[in-house]
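Honest question from a wet-lab person: if I give you the sequences of every part of a complex, can you actually get the arrangement of the whole thing, not just the pieces? Trying it with mine:
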Amino acid sequence: MSGPLRVLIVDDEAPARNRMRDLLSDCAGSLDVTVVGEAGSGRAALAFLEENPADVVLLDIHMPEMDGLELAHHLRALNPAPAVIFTTAYDEYAIRAFEVHAVDYLLKPIRLARLQEALSRVRTARAIPPEAIDAARTRPRAFLSAQERGKVTLIPIEEVLYFRAELKYVTARTAEREFLLEESLTRLEQEYAERFVRVHRSCLVARAAIRGFERAPAEGGEGGWFVLLRHVDDRIPVSRRQQHVIRDVGREGG
Amino acid sequence: MASINQNAYSSALPNFRNLGILLRIIVVANVFAIAAAVVSVASWREFWNEVPETAALVQPLLIASLLVLMASNSLLQRVPYALGVALVLAAEAALAAVLHAAARPLLLFELGPMPRAVLLTVMASAVLLFYFDLRGRALSPALSEARLQALQARIRPHFLYNSINAVLSLIRQDPRRAETALEDLAALFRVLMADNRELTTLAHEVELCRQYLDIEQLRLGDRLQVEWHVDKMPAEALVPPLVLQPLLENAVYHGIEPQLTPGPIVVDIYTRRDQLHIRLRNPYERSGNHHGGNKMALANIRERLALHFDAEATLETRVRDNSYEVHIAMPWVRERVR
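Yes, you can. This is the full assembly:
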Protein backbone atom coordinates (compact mmCIF):
# COMPACT_ATOMS: atom_id res chain seq x y z
CA MET A 1 0.00 0.00 0.00
CA SER A 2 1.25 3.49 -0.69
CA GLY A 3 0.06 7.05 -0.34
CA PRO A 4 -0.15 8.91 2.92
CA LEU A 5 -1.08 7.09 6.10
CA ARG A 6 -4.68 8.06 6.83
CA VAL A 7 -5.26 8.62 10.53
CA LEU A 8 -8.47 9.00 12.54
CA ILE A 9 -8.23 10.49 16.06
CA VAL A 10 -10.74 9.16 18.58
CA ASP A 11 -10.90 10.73 22.05
CA ASP A 12 -13.80 12.07 24.09
CA GLU A 13 -11.75 15.05 25.30
CA ALA A 14 -11.29 17.88 22.81
CA PRO A 15 -7.93 19.07 24.21
CA ALA A 16 -6.52 15.56 23.83
CA ARG A 17 -7.66 15.51 20.19
CA ASN A 18 -6.07 18.93 19.58
CA ARG A 19 -2.84 17.77 21.14
CA MET A 20 -2.82 14.71 18.90
CA ARG A 21 -3.41 16.88 15.84
CA ASP A 22 -0.44 19.08 16.80
CA LEU A 23 1.78 16.06 17.25
CA LEU A 24 0.68 14.57 13.93
CA SER A 25 1.39 17.82 12.11
CA ASP A 26 4.85 17.76 13.71
CA CYS A 27 5.29 14.27 12.25
CA ALA A 28 4.59 15.54 8.76
CA GLY A 29 8.23 16.31 8.07
CA SER A 30 9.44 12.76 8.51
CA LEU A 31 6.33 10.67 7.84
CA ASP A 32 3.67 10.82 5.17
CA VAL A 33 0.65 11.18 7.45
CA THR A 34 -2.70 12.81 6.95
CA VAL A 35 -5.44 13.26 9.52
CA VAL A 36 -8.72 12.27 7.88
CA GLY A 37 -10.88 13.14 10.86
CA GLU A 38 -11.64 13.28 14.55
CA ALA A 39 -14.35 11.57 16.58
CA GLY A 40 -15.49 12.27 20.13
CA SER A 41 -17.16 8.92 20.73
CA GLY A 42 -17.04 5.33 19.65
CA ARG A 43 -20.31 5.64 17.75
CA ALA A 44 -19.15 8.73 15.89
CA ALA A 45 -15.91 6.95 14.98
CA LEU A 46 -17.73 3.96 13.47
CA ALA A 47 -20.11 6.19 11.54
CA PHE A 48 -17.18 8.18 10.21
CA LEU A 49 -15.15 5.15 9.19
CA GLU A 50 -18.00 3.68 7.17
CA GLU A 51 -17.85 6.68 4.85
CA ASN A 52 -14.16 7.57 5.13
CA PRO A 53 -11.61 4.78 5.21
CA ALA A 54 -8.58 5.18 7.46
CA ASP A 55 -5.41 3.15 7.88
CA VAL A 56 -4.88 3.84 11.54
CA VAL A 57 -7.14 4.77 14.44
CA LEU A 58 -5.52 6.51 17.39
CA LEU A 59 -7.90 5.37 20.05
CA ASP A 60 -8.37 6.56 23.63
CA ILE A 61 -9.25 3.74 26.02
CA HIS A 62 -11.24 5.77 28.57
CA MET A 63 -14.42 7.01 26.93
CA PRO A 64 -18.02 7.20 28.06
CA GLU A 65 -20.69 4.92 26.62
CA MET A 66 -18.38 2.80 24.44
CA ASP A 67 -14.78 2.60 25.57
CA GLY A 68 -11.77 2.19 23.29
CA LEU A 69 -11.48 -1.55 23.84
CA GLU A 70 -15.07 -2.10 22.77
CA LEU A 71 -14.65 0.15 19.72
CA ALA A 72 -11.57 -1.86 18.72
CA HIS A 73 -13.77 -4.94 18.82
CA HIS A 74 -16.39 -3.39 16.52
CA LEU A 75 -13.75 -2.02 14.16
CA ARG A 76 -12.93 -5.58 13.19
CA ALA A 77 -16.22 -5.72 11.34
CA LEU A 78 -15.02 -3.06 8.90
CA ASN A 79 -13.50 -4.08 5.61
CA PRO A 80 -10.64 -3.36 5.52
CA ALA A 81 -10.26 -2.99 9.26
CA PRO A 82 -7.94 -0.15 10.29
CA ALA A 83 -4.94 -0.71 12.56
CA VAL A 84 -5.41 0.46 16.12
CA ILE A 85 -2.98 2.33 18.35
CA PHE A 86 -4.36 2.75 21.84
CA THR A 87 -3.77 5.91 23.85
CA THR A 88 -4.34 6.27 27.56
CA ALA A 89 -3.31 8.52 30.41
CA TYR A 90 -2.67 5.78 32.83
CA ASP A 91 -0.86 2.51 32.75
CA GLU A 92 -3.77 0.30 33.52
CA TYR A 93 -4.81 -3.29 33.41
CA ALA A 94 -5.61 -3.31 29.71
CA ILE A 95 -2.26 -1.85 28.75
CA ARG A 96 -0.41 -4.38 30.81
CA ALA A 97 -2.29 -7.12 28.99
CA PHE A 98 -1.02 -5.84 25.63
CA GLU A 99 2.58 -5.62 26.66
CA VAL A 100 2.89 -9.34 26.10
CA HIS A 101 2.11 -8.79 22.45
CA ALA A 102 4.72 -6.13 21.82
CA VAL A 103 2.30 -3.84 20.02
CA ASP A 104 2.17 -0.13 20.31
CA TYR A 105 0.16 1.83 22.69
CA LEU A 106 0.89 5.39 23.72
CA LEU A 107 0.86 6.82 27.21
CA LYS A 108 -0.43 10.39 27.51
CA PRO A 109 1.21 12.85 27.53
CA ILE A 110 2.52 11.41 24.29
CA ARG A 111 6.03 12.08 23.07
CA LEU A 112 6.52 12.93 19.42
CA ALA A 113 9.25 10.30 19.01
CA ARG A 114 7.02 7.54 20.40
CA LEU A 115 4.19 8.54 18.11
CA GLN A 116 6.45 8.56 15.05
CA GLU A 117 7.83 5.17 15.96
CA ALA A 118 4.36 3.70 16.42
CA LEU A 119 3.08 5.14 13.13
CA SER A 120 6.09 4.03 11.15
CA ARG A 121 5.59 0.46 12.35
CA VAL A 122 1.87 0.37 11.72
CA ARG A 123 2.12 -1.12 8.24
CA THR A 124 4.58 -3.80 9.19
CA ALA A 125 3.88 -4.66 12.81
CA ARG A 126 1.75 -7.55 13.89
CA ALA A 127 -1.62 -6.34 15.14
CA ILE A 128 -2.84 -6.98 18.63
CA PRO A 129 -4.64 -10.33 18.48
CA PRO A 130 -8.40 -9.87 18.80
CA GLU A 131 -8.49 -12.29 21.73
CA ALA A 132 -6.07 -10.07 23.63
CA ILE A 133 -8.30 -7.04 23.18
CA ASP A 134 -11.37 -8.99 24.20
CA ALA A 135 -9.58 -10.43 27.21
CA ALA A 136 -8.52 -6.96 28.33
CA ARG A 137 -12.09 -5.71 28.47
CA THR A 138 -13.25 -5.58 32.06
CA ARG A 139 -16.94 -5.08 31.37
CA PRO A 140 -19.47 -6.35 28.84
CA ARG A 141 -19.87 -4.50 25.57
CA ALA A 142 -22.52 -1.78 25.56
CA PHE A 143 -23.35 -2.57 21.92
CA LEU A 144 -23.42 -5.57 19.64
CA SER A 145 -22.42 -5.12 16.04
CA ALA A 146 -24.20 -6.60 13.08
CA GLN A 147 -22.99 -6.37 9.49
CA GLU A 148 -25.63 -5.50 6.97
CA ARG A 149 -25.05 -4.60 3.34
CA GLY A 150 -21.44 -3.70 4.09
CA LYS A 151 -22.39 -1.46 6.99
CA VAL A 152 -21.88 -2.00 10.67
CA THR A 153 -25.05 -1.57 12.71
CA LEU A 154 -24.72 -1.06 16.46
CA ILE A 155 -27.41 -2.57 18.66
CA PRO A 156 -27.52 -1.24 22.23
CA ILE A 157 -27.54 -4.30 24.45
CA GLU A 158 -30.43 -2.99 26.55
CA GLU A 159 -32.67 -3.14 23.47
CA VAL A 160 -32.17 -6.85 22.93
CA LEU A 161 -35.14 -8.94 24.13
CA TYR A 162 -33.68 -12.33 23.37
CA PHE A 163 -31.02 -14.21 21.42
CA ARG A 164 -31.76 -17.37 19.51
CA ALA A 165 -29.23 -19.72 17.96
CA GLU A 166 -30.20 -21.02 14.54
CA LEU A 167 -27.83 -23.28 12.67
CA LYS A 168 -24.67 -21.21 12.19
CA TYR A 169 -26.08 -17.87 13.27
CA VAL A 170 -27.38 -16.15 16.33
CA THR A 171 -30.28 -13.74 15.92
CA ALA A 172 -30.88 -10.87 18.30
CA ARG A 173 -34.50 -9.73 18.65
CA THR A 174 -35.31 -6.14 19.58
CA ALA A 175 -38.77 -4.61 19.82
CA GLU A 176 -38.48 -3.47 16.19
CA ARG A 177 -36.71 -6.23 14.34
CA GLU A 178 -34.19 -9.06 14.21
CA PHE A 179 -30.44 -8.90 13.56
CA LEU A 180 -28.07 -11.61 12.43
CA LEU A 181 -24.94 -11.75 14.56
CA GLU A 182 -21.66 -13.53 14.21
CA GLU A 183 -21.49 -14.56 17.81
CA SER A 184 -21.74 -17.73 19.78
CA LEU A 185 -24.58 -18.14 22.23
CA THR A 186 -22.23 -19.50 24.86
CA ARG A 187 -19.99 -16.43 24.68
CA LEU A 188 -22.98 -14.11 24.88
CA GLU A 189 -24.22 -16.04 27.87
CA GLN A 190 -20.87 -15.62 29.62
CA GLU A 191 -20.49 -11.95 28.74
CA TYR A 192 -24.02 -10.96 29.81
CA ALA A 193 -24.61 -13.41 32.62
CA GLU A 194 -26.31 -10.71 34.70
CA ARG A 195 -28.60 -9.46 32.00
CA PHE A 196 -29.72 -12.63 30.20
CA VAL A 197 -30.94 -16.03 31.32
CA ARG A 198 -30.90 -19.25 29.32
CA VAL A 199 -34.38 -20.74 29.00
CA HIS A 200 -33.61 -23.25 26.32
CA ARG A 201 -30.59 -24.88 24.71
CA SER A 202 -30.74 -22.33 21.92
CA CYS A 203 -32.23 -19.28 23.60
CA LEU A 204 -31.16 -16.49 25.98
CA VAL A 205 -33.86 -14.12 27.26
CA ALA A 206 -33.29 -10.67 28.79
CA ARG A 207 -34.44 -10.81 32.40
CA ALA A 208 -35.88 -7.30 32.12
CA ALA A 209 -37.97 -8.30 29.09
CA ILE A 210 -39.78 -11.18 30.78
CA ARG A 211 -43.45 -10.36 31.29
CA GLY A 212 -44.45 -13.72 32.68
CA PHE A 213 -44.69 -17.44 32.06
CA GLU A 214 -47.52 -19.44 30.59
CA ARG A 215 -48.29 -23.12 30.57
CA ALA A 216 -49.75 -24.25 27.31
CA PRO A 217 -50.58 -27.67 25.91
CA ALA A 218 -48.38 -28.74 23.06
CA GLU A 219 -50.01 -30.27 20.02
CA GLY A 220 -49.07 -33.84 20.56
CA GLY A 221 -48.94 -34.68 24.24
CA GLU A 222 -47.89 -32.99 27.44
CA GLY A 223 -47.81 -29.21 27.76
CA GLY A 224 -44.82 -27.04 28.41
CA TRP A 225 -43.93 -23.65 29.78
CA PHE A 226 -43.44 -20.56 27.64
CA VAL A 227 -41.87 -17.18 28.34
CA LEU A 228 -44.06 -14.18 27.58
CA LEU A 229 -42.14 -11.06 26.57
CA ARG A 230 -42.69 -7.35 26.67
CA HIS A 231 -43.03 -5.49 23.33
CA VAL A 232 -43.35 -8.61 21.15
CA ASP A 233 -45.81 -11.49 20.89
CA ASP A 234 -43.16 -14.18 20.47
CA ARG A 235 -43.49 -17.06 22.89
CA ILE A 236 -40.26 -18.78 23.81
CA PRO A 237 -40.41 -22.36 25.08
CA VAL A 238 -38.70 -23.15 28.36
CA SER A 239 -36.95 -26.49 28.24
CA ARG A 240 -37.62 -29.03 30.95
CA ARG A 241 -34.07 -28.77 32.13
CA GLN A 242 -34.31 -24.97 32.58
CA GLN A 243 -37.66 -24.90 34.38
CA HIS A 244 -35.97 -23.75 37.59
CA VAL A 245 -35.60 -20.42 35.77
CA ILE A 246 -39.33 -19.82 36.21
CA ARG A 247 -38.96 -19.93 39.97
CA ASP A 248 -35.71 -17.94 40.00
CA VAL A 249 -36.99 -15.11 37.82
CA GLY A 250 -40.25 -14.98 39.78
CA ARG A 251 -38.29 -14.58 42.99
CA GLU A 252 -36.04 -11.81 41.65
CA GLY A 253 -38.98 -9.95 40.14
CA GLY A 254 -40.73 -10.01 43.52
CA MET B 1 15.32 4.91 68.15
CA ALA B 2 14.21 8.39 68.98
CA SER B 3 15.38 9.66 65.62
CA ILE B 4 12.83 7.50 63.82
CA ASN B 5 9.95 9.15 65.56
CA GLN B 6 9.97 12.53 63.88
CA ASN B 7 6.52 13.66 64.88
CA ALA B 8 6.97 13.21 68.62
CA TYR B 9 3.66 13.12 70.41
CA SER B 10 3.16 15.71 73.10
CA SER B 11 0.63 14.87 75.79
CA ALA B 12 -2.45 17.06 75.95
CA LEU B 13 -5.72 17.03 77.81
CA PRO B 14 -8.70 15.95 75.73
CA ASN B 15 -11.26 18.44 74.50
CA PHE B 16 -13.86 18.30 77.26
CA ARG B 17 -16.46 19.88 75.03
CA ASN B 18 -16.38 16.97 72.63
CA LEU B 19 -19.36 14.64 72.78
CA GLY B 20 -17.24 11.53 72.27
CA ILE B 21 -14.94 12.46 75.16
CA LEU B 22 -17.91 13.18 77.47
CA LEU B 23 -19.48 9.84 76.59
CA ARG B 24 -16.27 8.01 77.34
CA ILE B 25 -16.01 9.74 80.73
CA ILE B 26 -19.57 8.77 81.63
CA VAL B 27 -19.10 5.13 80.61
CA VAL B 28 -15.75 4.69 82.38
CA ALA B 29 -16.89 6.45 85.59
CA ASN B 30 -19.96 4.23 85.80
CA VAL B 31 -17.92 1.10 85.23
CA PHE B 32 -15.75 2.26 88.13
CA ALA B 33 -18.76 2.85 90.37
CA ILE B 34 -20.12 -0.61 89.67
CA ALA B 35 -16.68 -2.15 90.22
CA ALA B 36 -16.41 -0.35 93.57
CA ALA B 37 -19.84 -1.70 94.53
CA VAL B 38 -18.84 -5.24 93.55
CA VAL B 39 -15.65 -5.04 95.59
CA SER B 40 -17.28 -3.70 98.73
CA VAL B 41 -20.13 -6.24 99.12
CA ALA B 42 -20.24 -9.83 100.29
CA SER B 43 -23.40 -11.10 98.53
CA TRP B 44 -25.60 -10.37 95.52
CA ARG B 45 -28.42 -9.05 97.66
CA GLU B 46 -26.11 -6.49 99.21
CA PHE B 47 -24.92 -5.59 95.75
CA TRP B 48 -28.42 -4.56 94.63
CA ASN B 49 -28.63 -2.27 97.65
CA GLU B 50 -25.16 -0.94 97.14
CA VAL B 51 -25.58 0.08 93.48
CA PRO B 52 -28.25 2.78 94.00
CA GLU B 53 -26.40 4.07 97.05
CA THR B 54 -23.20 4.42 95.06
CA ALA B 55 -25.15 5.98 92.22
CA ALA B 56 -26.67 8.55 94.55
CA LEU B 57 -23.19 9.90 95.14
CA VAL B 58 -21.53 9.11 91.79
CA GLN B 59 -24.11 10.52 89.36
CA PRO B 60 -24.31 14.04 90.84
CA LEU B 61 -20.53 14.05 91.09
CA LEU B 62 -20.26 12.98 87.46
CA ILE B 63 -22.65 15.67 86.24
CA ALA B 64 -20.94 18.35 88.31
CA SER B 65 -17.53 17.19 87.05
CA LEU B 66 -18.58 17.33 83.42
CA LEU B 67 -20.02 20.82 83.84
CA VAL B 68 -16.85 22.06 85.53
CA LEU B 69 -14.63 20.45 82.90
CA MET B 70 -16.67 21.86 80.02
CA ALA B 71 -16.64 25.31 81.57
CA SER B 72 -12.91 25.29 82.20
CA ASN B 73 -12.02 23.58 78.92
CA SER B 74 -10.39 26.56 77.23
CA LEU B 75 -8.33 27.31 80.33
CA LEU B 76 -7.24 23.67 80.61
CA GLN B 77 -6.21 23.64 76.96
CA ARG B 78 -3.95 26.64 77.45
CA VAL B 79 -1.94 25.53 80.51
CA PRO B 80 0.91 23.00 80.32
CA TYR B 81 -0.16 19.35 80.46
CA ALA B 82 1.19 18.59 83.96
CA LEU B 83 -0.53 21.63 85.44
CA GLY B 84 -3.73 20.72 83.61
CA VAL B 85 -3.67 17.21 85.09
CA ALA B 86 -3.06 18.62 88.58
CA LEU B 87 -5.93 21.09 88.17
CA VAL B 88 -8.35 18.39 87.01
CA LEU B 89 -7.41 16.05 89.88
CA ALA B 90 -7.66 18.86 92.45
CA ALA B 91 -11.03 19.92 91.08
CA GLU B 92 -12.31 16.35 91.26
CA ALA B 93 -11.08 15.91 94.85
CA ALA B 94 -12.72 19.18 95.86
CA LEU B 95 -15.99 18.29 94.10
CA ALA B 96 -16.05 14.87 95.76
CA ALA B 97 -15.48 16.39 99.20
CA VAL B 98 -18.11 19.11 98.76
CA LEU B 99 -20.74 16.72 97.41
CA HIS B 100 -20.00 14.20 100.15
CA ALA B 101 -20.48 16.86 102.79
CA ALA B 102 -23.62 18.22 101.12
CA ALA B 103 -25.15 14.78 100.58
CA ARG B 104 -24.66 13.42 104.10
CA PRO B 105 -27.69 15.16 105.69
CA LEU B 106 -29.90 14.48 102.64
CA LEU B 107 -29.43 10.74 102.29
CA LEU B 108 -31.29 8.10 104.23
CA PHE B 109 -28.43 5.65 104.35
CA GLU B 110 -24.99 5.83 105.91
CA LEU B 111 -22.28 7.16 103.55
CA GLY B 112 -18.77 5.80 103.63
CA PRO B 113 -16.00 7.96 105.06
CA MET B 114 -15.15 11.10 103.11
CA PRO B 115 -11.43 10.32 102.49
CA ARG B 116 -12.42 7.05 100.82
CA ALA B 117 -14.82 8.80 98.44
CA VAL B 118 -12.26 11.48 97.61
CA LEU B 119 -9.51 8.93 97.04
CA LEU B 120 -11.71 6.78 94.77
CA THR B 121 -12.73 9.84 92.76
CA VAL B 122 -9.15 11.00 92.29
CA MET B 123 -8.06 7.50 91.28
CA ALA B 124 -10.86 7.16 88.76
CA SER B 125 -9.99 10.58 87.31
CA ALA B 126 -6.31 9.69 87.08
CA VAL B 127 -7.08 6.45 85.28
CA LEU B 128 -9.34 8.32 82.85
CA LEU B 129 -6.68 10.92 82.11
CA PHE B 130 -4.16 8.15 81.59
CA TYR B 131 -6.59 6.48 79.18
CA PHE B 132 -7.11 9.69 77.20
CA ASP B 133 -3.36 10.18 76.97
CA LEU B 134 -2.90 6.61 75.71
CA ARG B 135 -5.73 7.09 73.24
CA GLY B 136 -4.16 10.33 72.00
CA ARG B 137 -0.89 8.51 71.47
CA ALA B 138 -2.60 5.63 69.71
CA LEU B 139 -4.40 7.96 67.32
CA SER B 140 -1.61 10.31 66.42
CA PRO B 141 1.81 8.65 66.42
CA ALA B 142 4.12 9.16 63.48
CA LEU B 143 2.92 5.98 61.85
CA SER B 144 -0.72 6.90 61.63
CA GLU B 145 0.03 10.46 60.61
CA ALA B 146 2.37 9.30 57.92
CA ARG B 147 -0.36 7.00 56.67
CA LEU B 148 -2.92 9.78 56.61
CA GLN B 149 -0.55 12.03 54.73
CA ALA B 150 0.14 9.31 52.23
CA LEU B 151 -3.56 8.80 51.73
CA GLN B 152 -4.11 12.49 51.29
CA ALA B 153 -1.56 12.77 48.56
CA ARG B 154 -3.21 9.97 46.62
CA ILE B 155 -4.76 12.00 43.87
CA ARG B 156 -5.52 9.78 40.89
CA PRO B 157 -2.53 9.55 38.55
CA HIS B 158 -5.13 9.43 35.79
CA PHE B 159 -6.04 13.03 36.72
CA LEU B 160 -2.45 14.26 36.73
CA TYR B 161 -1.54 12.83 33.33
CA ASN B 162 -4.78 13.88 31.67
CA SER B 163 -4.38 17.40 33.06
CA ILE B 164 -0.81 17.71 31.84
CA ASN B 165 -1.97 16.51 28.46
CA ALA B 166 -4.73 19.13 28.42
CA VAL B 167 -2.25 21.86 29.33
CA LEU B 168 0.11 20.69 26.57
CA SER B 169 -2.75 21.02 24.08
CA LEU B 170 -3.26 24.64 25.13
CA ILE B 171 0.32 25.82 24.96
CA ARG B 172 0.29 26.56 21.22
CA GLN B 173 -3.26 27.83 20.79
CA ASP B 174 -3.97 29.57 24.08
CA PRO B 175 -0.80 30.16 26.10
CA ARG B 176 -2.60 32.30 28.68
CA ARG B 177 -5.07 29.60 29.57
CA ALA B 178 -2.20 27.16 29.77
CA GLU B 179 -0.52 29.45 32.29
CA THR B 180 -3.63 29.68 34.45
CA ALA B 181 -4.09 25.93 34.30
CA LEU B 182 -0.53 25.30 35.47
CA GLU B 183 -0.98 27.80 38.30
CA ASP B 184 -4.16 25.98 39.39
CA LEU B 185 -2.36 22.68 39.21
CA ALA B 186 0.49 24.03 41.32
CA ALA B 187 -1.94 25.39 43.92
CA LEU B 188 -3.68 22.05 44.13
CA PHE B 189 -0.48 20.11 44.56
CA ARG B 190 0.81 22.59 47.12
CA VAL B 191 -2.12 21.65 49.34
CA LEU B 192 -1.90 17.96 48.53
CA MET B 193 1.75 17.84 49.50
CA ALA B 194 1.44 20.08 52.53
CA ASP B 195 1.33 19.10 56.17
CA ASN B 196 -2.41 18.88 56.54
CA ARG B 197 -2.86 18.30 60.25
CA GLU B 198 -4.13 21.81 60.99
CA LEU B 199 -7.63 22.91 60.17
CA THR B 200 -8.09 25.36 57.31
CA THR B 201 -10.85 27.83 56.50
CA LEU B 202 -13.84 26.75 54.48
CA ALA B 203 -13.19 29.63 52.07
CA HIS B 204 -9.75 28.15 51.37
CA GLU B 205 -11.12 24.71 50.74
CA VAL B 206 -13.80 26.02 48.38
CA GLU B 207 -11.23 28.09 46.49
CA LEU B 208 -9.09 24.99 46.08
CA CYS B 209 -12.10 23.07 44.78
CA ARG B 210 -12.79 25.75 42.21
CA GLN B 211 -9.20 25.60 41.00
CA TYR B 212 -9.45 21.84 40.74
CA LEU B 213 -12.69 22.11 38.76
CA ASP B 214 -11.16 24.70 36.42
CA ILE B 215 -8.50 22.16 35.52
CA GLU B 216 -11.09 19.45 34.90
CA GLN B 217 -13.17 21.87 32.85
CA LEU B 218 -10.32 22.12 30.34
CA ARG B 219 -10.72 18.46 29.47
CA LEU B 220 -14.40 17.92 29.99
CA GLY B 221 -15.78 21.20 28.66
CA ASP B 222 -19.57 21.43 28.76
CA ARG B 223 -19.92 17.98 30.24
CA LEU B 224 -18.79 19.36 33.60
CA GLN B 225 -21.43 21.60 35.20
CA VAL B 226 -21.23 22.49 38.88
CA GLU B 227 -23.92 24.25 40.89
CA TRP B 228 -22.62 25.90 44.05
CA HIS B 229 -25.11 26.75 46.78
CA VAL B 230 -22.76 28.49 49.17
CA ASP B 231 -24.27 31.93 49.84
CA LYS B 232 -25.05 30.87 53.41
CA MET B 233 -21.65 29.33 53.89
CA PRO B 234 -19.61 30.62 56.87
CA ALA B 235 -16.38 31.37 54.99
CA GLU B 236 -14.29 31.56 58.14
CA ALA B 237 -15.43 28.22 59.58
CA LEU B 238 -12.55 25.81 60.15
CA VAL B 239 -12.56 22.44 58.41
CA PRO B 240 -10.01 19.66 57.85
CA PRO B 241 -8.08 20.44 54.66
CA LEU B 242 -9.09 18.40 51.62
CA VAL B 243 -12.47 17.55 53.08
CA LEU B 244 -14.33 18.47 49.89
CA GLN B 245 -11.84 18.28 47.00
CA PRO B 246 -11.47 14.47 47.01
CA LEU B 247 -15.27 14.18 46.98
CA LEU B 248 -15.43 16.39 43.89
CA GLU B 249 -12.73 14.30 42.28
CA ASN B 250 -14.84 11.22 42.94
CA ALA B 251 -17.89 12.95 41.53
CA VAL B 252 -16.04 13.81 38.33
CA TYR B 253 -14.53 10.36 37.99
CA HIS B 254 -17.66 8.34 38.72
CA GLY B 255 -20.41 10.77 37.74
CA ILE B 256 -19.16 12.89 34.84
CA GLU B 257 -16.47 11.00 32.93
CA PRO B 258 -18.49 7.83 32.26
CA GLN B 259 -21.43 9.72 30.71
CA LEU B 260 -21.86 11.51 27.41
CA THR B 261 -24.37 14.05 28.75
CA PRO B 262 -24.15 13.96 32.53
CA GLY B 263 -26.23 16.17 34.79
CA PRO B 264 -24.67 18.74 37.11
CA ILE B 265 -22.69 18.23 40.30
CA VAL B 266 -24.48 20.09 43.11
CA VAL B 267 -22.65 21.36 46.20
CA ASP B 268 -24.57 22.68 49.20
CA ILE B 269 -22.78 24.22 52.19
CA TYR B 270 -24.79 25.60 55.11
CA THR B 271 -25.00 25.67 58.89
CA ARG B 272 -27.76 24.41 61.09
CA ARG B 273 -27.51 25.23 64.79
CA ASP B 274 -23.89 24.51 65.65
CA GLN B 275 -23.27 22.07 62.84
CA LEU B 276 -21.65 22.74 59.50
CA HIS B 277 -23.18 20.71 56.68
CA ILE B 278 -21.59 19.90 53.34
CA ARG B 279 -23.70 18.05 50.78
CA LEU B 280 -22.51 16.94 47.41
CA ARG B 281 -24.67 15.28 44.78
CA ASN B 282 -23.52 13.91 41.45
CA PRO B 283 -25.16 11.99 38.62
CA TYR B 284 -24.55 8.29 38.89
CA GLU B 285 -25.36 5.28 36.80
CA ARG B 286 -25.49 2.02 38.63
CA SER B 287 -24.17 0.13 35.64
CA GLY B 288 -21.37 2.69 35.47
CA ASN B 289 -18.09 2.04 33.75
CA HIS B 290 -15.63 2.81 36.47
CA HIS B 291 -15.07 0.57 39.38
CA GLY B 292 -13.44 0.84 42.78
CA GLY B 293 -11.43 3.75 44.10
CA ASN B 294 -14.40 5.50 45.63
CA LYS B 295 -14.27 3.80 48.99
CA MET B 296 -10.77 4.94 49.71
CA ALA B 297 -11.37 8.65 49.51
CA LEU B 298 -14.46 8.28 51.69
CA ALA B 299 -12.65 6.15 54.28
CA ASN B 300 -9.83 8.67 54.35
CA ILE B 301 -12.15 11.63 54.94
CA ARG B 302 -14.11 9.70 57.55
CA GLU B 303 -10.91 8.84 59.39
CA ARG B 304 -9.71 12.42 59.40
CA LEU B 305 -13.10 13.73 60.56
CA ALA B 306 -12.96 11.23 63.43
CA LEU B 307 -9.44 12.33 64.30
CA HIS B 308 -10.50 15.97 64.45
CA PHE B 309 -14.02 15.73 65.83
CA ASP B 310 -14.45 12.20 67.20
CA ALA B 311 -18.15 11.30 67.39
CA GLU B 312 -19.35 14.81 66.53
CA ALA B 313 -18.79 14.51 62.80
CA THR B 314 -20.64 12.18 60.47
CA LEU B 315 -20.29 11.24 56.82
CA GLU B 316 -23.18 9.54 55.09
CA THR B 317 -23.62 8.40 51.52
CA ARG B 318 -26.81 7.63 49.70
CA VAL B 319 -27.58 6.30 46.24
CA ARG B 320 -30.84 7.53 44.79
CA ASP B 321 -32.35 6.81 41.40
CA ASN B 322 -29.73 8.43 39.25
CA SER B 323 -27.66 10.31 41.76
CA TYR B 324 -25.12 9.72 44.46
CA GLU B 325 -25.04 11.92 47.52
CA VAL B 326 -22.45 12.49 50.23
CA HIS B 327 -23.50 14.38 53.36
CA ILE B 328 -20.94 15.55 55.91
CA ALA B 329 -21.99 17.11 59.20
CA MET B 330 -19.32 18.43 61.53
CA PRO B 331 -19.03 20.92 64.37
CA TRP B 332 -19.01 24.55 63.24
CA VAL B 333 -15.57 25.53 64.51
CA ARG B 334 -15.23 29.31 64.65
CA GLU B 335 -11.79 29.70 66.16
CA ARG B 336 -8.64 27.73 66.53
CA VAL B 337 -8.19 25.90 69.83
CA ARG B 338 -4.60 25.90 71.15
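Two things worth pointing out. Chain B has eleven helices and seven strands. The radius of gyration of chain B is 26 Å.
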